[in-house]
Amino acid sequence: MRGLFAALGRYIAHDDPLTAALNKVAMVLAGNTPFYPLYLWAVLGHDASPVILLTLCSFPFWAVVPAIARRCGLAGRVFLTIIGVLNTIWCSIILGFDSGTALFLIPCIVLATLGFHQRERKLSLAIAALPFIAYGFLRIADISPPRLYQQAEYSSLITLNGFSVACLIGFLGLAFAAARPTAETPLAPIRRES
Question: What mean pLDDT do residues 165-188 have?
Fold first, then answer.
């Protein structure tokens, strides 16, 4: 098991701390993807449709991010953000807009705004527009999911997805904080009024 973790560590390693952090994010997403249908089954119970297994389609895309980043860190970071947006659209089509899956566009905005260096700001802002465009598309498009659920089930799905988004944003905060250089600056002395 130790060898497996060592191999994974080598796979996500990168000279650029920001790219290494996003590689770690990609692996966490890949690791959680197989559990998402189980969460859905837990929430939906006997009403769960086999179509929810289509949410697994993103797994290979998350898993390949570090391989892309090894060739070009910027390409890996762009790919991760775009896959996040496309996966959110895909899951919203599968489960319906009312399921709250569109909430996953929020971490996509975080990835697009914090996952790039200052010199990449123009590209970052362009990519940050994609989640907003995706939300508009999902809100306006009349896409009927393969299976409709009861209002109580949609409420449970929103709770599940909202909690998942909150956890993901918390993890992104930790990952980005670890990737940023620390600037230890001493505090200026306090002047006393005489």
Answer: 80
What is the C-alpha separation between 114 and 120, in angstroms, rounded? 11
Contact (Cβ atoms closer than 8 angstroms) between residue 69 and residue 22: yes
In Å, what is the CA distance from 173 to each residue of 4, 65, 89, 170?
26, 19, 23, 5
The number of residues in the chain equals 194
pTM value surpassing 0.85 = yes
Cβ atoms 129, 71 nearer than 8 A: no
Q: Are 84 and 127 in contact (CB under 8 A)?
A: no
Helices (H) and strands (E) counted in the chain, each on its own, are 8, 0
92-125: b or e for each residue (b if 16 or more CB lie within 10 Å)? bbbbbbbbbbbbbbbbbbbbbebbbeeeeeeebe
